[in-house]
Amino acid sequence: MSSVLPTQKESLNGTYTFSSRPRPAQNRSKYRENPAETNERHTNYGNIMYDRRVVRGNTYAQQIIPIPAPADRAEIQQREAHKRAMARKRARAQLRSKTPDAIAGRSHVDVQTELYLEELSDHIEATNVDCQTDAFLDKPPTPLFVPAKTGKDVATQIKDGELFDFDVEVRPVLEVLVGKTIEQSLLEVMEEEEMASLRAQQRSFQELRDAELAEVQRLEEQERRRREEKGRRIAQQREVLEKERETAEKVAAWAFTQHYLADLLASVYTALGDHGYFYDPVEKDIETSFFPWLMDEVSHNLEKSYVARDLLDTLILEVTQKRVDGFQELDS
Which segments of the protein form a coiled coil according to its record (predicted)? Predict the structure, then answer.
């Protein structure tokens, strides 16, 4: 194969730019051809030591290449836009179908024939770049012509068993193969047994652990029930003691009231007689003043005693009923 380098031209400011499009490389023979038979249009590549862009000699007196002035920004953008337009035009030309026109009533349609379908999209713009390979080796000299042999060659007869006895030679190989196979099988069986024992031990440990956790949960629940029952019993006993205290206070108050009211009437009469409020000169005054007042006081006292008795009976009945209910709840 032969490759064609793009030609270059030197501008006025001393820089080099490409002036031709890249072209596909031409085919050539594998070996180097005779220089006399090569085509005149094939160019020889020069040595980089003769290129003026390669610095030679001392480094303190290098050749200074003038820096070109920056081009106008509008001109650069216009040049890039022209390049992109040309690239899109070339891409459309390459993607254009080369098949003949469809007959009347039909049209060409792009159909995917691959195993997996994929979404069709715009093709990415690509640029072909060529490179020059190293020089090929010289063509080796043509070997001398040697005519083919005719007739029969000399042969050597070898009888069976003189060079190789299969039954004898294969025995060590078979012993090694069988021994290695049996050893590997024993190792695998031992490994399986060990894994089975480990799994059994793990299952037993897991069962023991589950049993311990269940026992711990049962004990915790039992302790919780006992604690709650103890709290309820203490609260009930406190209520009973409070009710007994209240009943005792009420009974003591009732007894004190009765004792105080028993001597009150006599002391009142005595005090009134000593102060001169009771006199007998006028009978009418006694009948109109003393007897109505006396009857009112007696009826009032009797009514108060009746009310006190009814209240006491009610309190005793309520206290007794509550204590009976409390004892029934404790028994249940």
Answer: 202-239
